[in-house]
Each structure stands twice: as C-alpha cells, then as structure tokens.
Amino acid sequence: MAEQSTYRQALFTGLIYNEEGQPVETTLIGSEPNYVILDGDFKRHVAAEDVDRQVINWLQEQATANKELVSAGMMTMLGKDDLFTKAMIDASLSQMDRVMEQGLPDDARTMLGMLGFKIIVNTHGEVIKIDMPGQEVDEE
Predict the structure, then answer these.
(1) How many independent structural domains does the chain possess?
(2) Whole-model pTM?
(3) What is the pLDDT of residue 136?
(4) Among the residues of 47-121, which ranges form H helices?
C-alpha cells in the first residue's frame, strides 16, 4: 500500500510566478495541493510540495550560511538582546524544514509579498530565481 502524503497546503501561494511574470495559481488535485503554471495556453500542474521544498531548502541554506547576521537581525526586530532569545532564534533556524509540516501563516506570506519576496519557476516547477528584499538570486 502506498504511503499517503500529509502535505495539505501550498506554502507560497501568491508569491510564485512563471518566467513571463504571470502569477501561479494554487489548486487541489484530490487532496494534494498543486501550483498551476501557465505555459502559453496550457496549464501545467506541479505538486506544491516539490516547489515548496526547493524554496525551504534554499532559505535554510541561506540562513545557515548567514546565521549570525540573521540572528542579530531577528533580535533587533524583536527588540531583545539576550541569550534565551538568541537560543530560540538559532533553534528555529535549524528547524526551518518543519514549516513544510506546520505551514506558513497567512500574515507571514502577506508580509513576504509586501517586502518583494518573489519565486520564479519554469514550466516544470523548478525554481530558477528567488527575488528577496534587497537582493536577487539566480538558481542557474
């Protein structure tokens, strides 16, 4: 018997675009969330879990590579500068992949969009570029 996925929601709805800059929609096929990527007049359905995992892995790599800078920035945003806060932030950064299980709050997704966070995918659902506030990253 095949194992059924527990992945229930697309994490980056409203933040993903195709290479032509068109927004990617989200839909369910059965109980599995999919991104609908326009390819001319054709709508390609790609499992949201595959795309989201690429983005989470990239974010985790960036956070790990810049751990001290990220921790300091988050502590400044929170207005706290103590060992307990730093330990909580560091623990959160090391467990970022749990977002795949727990989901991304709507407020966080909205804030990311307002800050200019944008994910560009090709017609196969491969992340080719991530626009971050203040920087642009090519995956190629």
Answers:
(1) 1
(2) 0.78
(3) 47
(4) 48-65, 67-78, 83-94, 99-102, 106-114
